[in-house]
Amino acid sequence: KKRKQKFQVHHLQELFETKLGAKHVDYEQSTASIVKKCCEEFSSDNDEPFYIVNLSHYARQYLQWMHFLGRIHPFYAIKSNPKNFIIEIIAELGGGFDCASSEELNLVRETCGNNFDYATRIIFAHPCKSISHIRQFRQVGVQMTVADNEDELKKLKEHWPDAKVLLRLKPDDRHSLSPFSMKFGANERECITLLRLARKLNINLVGCSFHVGSQCLDPKVYTETLKQARRIFDIAQQDEFGFNFKILDIGGGFSGYDWDKPSFPEVAKIINNTLDKLFPKLEDITIISEPGRYFSSGGMTLVTRIIARRIHNRVYKSNEKIVKLERNISGSTSNSFENNDDSDNNSKSDKALIENADNIYYINDGIYGTFNAIIFDHKTFIVHYLKMKKDKKKKYPQFRSVIFGPTCDSTDCIAHSIDLPLLDIGDVLWFPGVGSYTNASASNFNGFQTKKYIFIWKK
Ligand code: PLP
């Protein structure tokens, strides 16, 4: 099995070298040096922003998944980053897909063609579907979907009577950064009503699904929801209902970063232990999952340029400020931020922070683009800088800075207060790990959008 996987990965590497010009990069090479090289090679006379995509990341995540959660088939949640290259890699390695709309389904069709097994490798994982989308999924041969309310069951009876339907449960997702339970999911009492209706309508209920909320910080939620699923599996079997549930879908919510806590192996261990107790292998239940950010987060780095600046040139006389600057000189060259998240200045208004900043920079991607994830995904970005003009200084004093995006809108502010050295027009700000819920939900407002992708394959 391992030899086969190695062969598949090697094949993908060669395929993407030919197809997308993905350059092979040594595994040891730092992202900083790759960014520098790309800036020199691809954009020395071009200040457009671009993404560096490390295609081997998606294969690595797939292999890691199979290593730690081998019982569970991953169905990549396309919404987190709907790009053909991710779909192609995951499909080649054997994964399936969670599609929530006709457009997402079309992406799989474009990438995987007609021979793909739509019946077993796609789930239409939206509990509230439009009829035109149902028609298309059905036409293509998709069989699995989810429902969490009576009207959806009636809709399926009329428009997709042969669907295999999973009941979507409602977990306690308080500890997730993006909870979904106020919008989707049925509690246990509602599930029983749905079981009764499904029996009456002769709907083919085949199992349960759930989503613990995106960026789930407490893995115990998986345990608790799996217990809930077990109870529904048991109730569904009772004579009154007579179903024989065979599919369990444990949704998404897994982190995409190695440094996040709890780590993926830790979460996997908790899930495996619970599954072994509640859904032992003997029972022959197919277990699937819908990871989105787990696959997509770490694969992309955004590279932007400073296109304009406003330098306030303050003279630093106060001792306090000098101490502060010195502390920062010996600090890291990177900063992370969630827009205006600065503990010293939390009480100040954004306007005051901007007015009191030392320097203001304008870069060529912003809140309407990649950084929409600050608003929609509670995302924390990590910023690094790269000075393009050679300078003998090794360390640079840091200044309170503001970073604006490129549009004409003043809400297009990426960071209200962040420590950065004095940077010039043409210098680079780059942001690693921007692959999920970023380009997927970016707009073209004001004519600005990061469209260029540079591909590498880190070995
Ligand atoms: N499945 C469903 C139904 C979702 O709504 C989402 C996210 O919105 C996902 C899977 C992917 O979640 P995550 O990116 O947290 O893995």
From TrEMBL:
Q: Which domain of life is it from?
A: Eukaryota
**GO MF terms held by the record:** ornithine decarboxylase activity
- Keyword field contains Iron: no
Q: Where is the Orn/DAP/Arg decarboxylase 2 C-terminal domain?
A: 300-435
Q: In which pathway does it act?
A: Amine and polyamine biosynthesis; putrescine biosynthesis via L-ornithine pathway; putrescine from L-ornithine: step 1/1
Positions where N6-(pyridoxal phosphate)lysine occurs in the chain: 79
Under catalytic activity, the entry for this protein gives: L-ornithine + H(+) = putrescine + CO2
- Give UniProt keywords alphabetically: Lyase, Polyamine biosynthesis, Pyridoxal phosphate
| Lyase is among the record's keywords | yes
Q: What does this protein do?
A: Catalyzes the first and rate-limiting step of polyamine biosynthesis that converts ornithine into putrescine, which is the precursor for the polyamines, spermidine and spermine. Polyamines are essential for cell proliferation and are implicated in cellular processes, ranging from DNA replication to apoptosis.
Subunit structure, interactors included: Homodimer. Only the dimer is catalytically active, as the active sites are constructed of residues from both monomers.
Q: What family is it from?
A: Belongs to the Orn/Lys/Arg decarboxylase class-II family.
Q: What is this protein called?
A: ornithine decarboxylase
Q: Which residues of the full protein are shown?
A: 156 to 614 of 614
